[in-house]
Write a structure and sequence with these properties.
By secondary structure, the protein is mainly alpha-helical. Helices cover 78% and strands 0% of the residues. The radius of gyration is 12 Å and the shape is elongated.
């Protein structure tokens, strides 16, 4: 129960910091982060990996190189 509470607080903190406010980017990041954590990978590694993945998808969708 405490782990779940810490996880929820972490998710809220991550999404309230300096991140683009675009819905596509946030949705991609959130899905990636949750799946990454479920696989047992560290939160720091998941954060870096998912920021990269969300950026890739965001720029591809917006047509930015």
């Amino acid at each position: 129960m405490i782990k779940l509470l810490i996880f929820i607080i972490l998710i809220n903190f991550v999404f309230s910091t300096d991140m683009p406010k675009d819905k596509l980017w946030r949705k991609t990041y959130k899905e990636c982060f949750i799946n990454c954590i479920k696989e047992g990978i560290s939160k720091h590694a998941c954060n870096l990996y998912c920021i990269h993945k969300a950026d890739e998808k965001y720029y591809k969708e917006k047509g930015i190189k």
